[in-house]
Design brief:
disordered C terminus, CBS-domain, alpha/beta, 32% helix, globular, 4-stranded mixed sheet
Length: 195
Amino acid sequence: MEPNSPLPTTRLPPGTVIAQARDWQANPVTMGSPALEVMTDLTKVKAATASPSTTLRQAEQIMIYQGVRMLFVVSDMPAIEGLVTTTDLHGDQQMLLVQQRNVRYDELCVADVMAGLTMLDAIDYEDMKSATVGNVVATLRSHRRNHLLVIEGSGASSRQVRGVISRTQIERQLGSPIPVDQGTNTMAEVLQMLS
């Protein structure tokens, strides 16, 4: 074929269908599966981001558009300043800020509600390599979080966020909910709930 020649085309017959997305996970995930199977690897998937000045409504639209429930907050890529989640967008903190500042919800921005860098919990990537999904679930539950970060690198200047653990993603892959708000259940109780 010539380098600049057009490709052949065809007309679509009646009954043509849209290809359906397939789960990227070939095998079902269990509590004993390797933890890396439930991590969103940011070396393979682009991180969803918002700036601190993004309004809460804009942040929600970004989440909807990208199909996520969490955004990294960045002013100067790739330096992370914090995270904002759907919970942050629709919690009591916003109503309190609206009342305290005498402003409308539309005037609030991500910087007003985000979790700053020093508030974030992270797991070392090296620990993830030998961990199971059960270990990750136990960590989410013990910290009462919906998201955890996975970091790699040894020195402060070489540390980077390598991945994200999402409770919702794990629930999809396991095929059952993971209650995290109680925080007092043992791993045996979690396994019993999932069976």
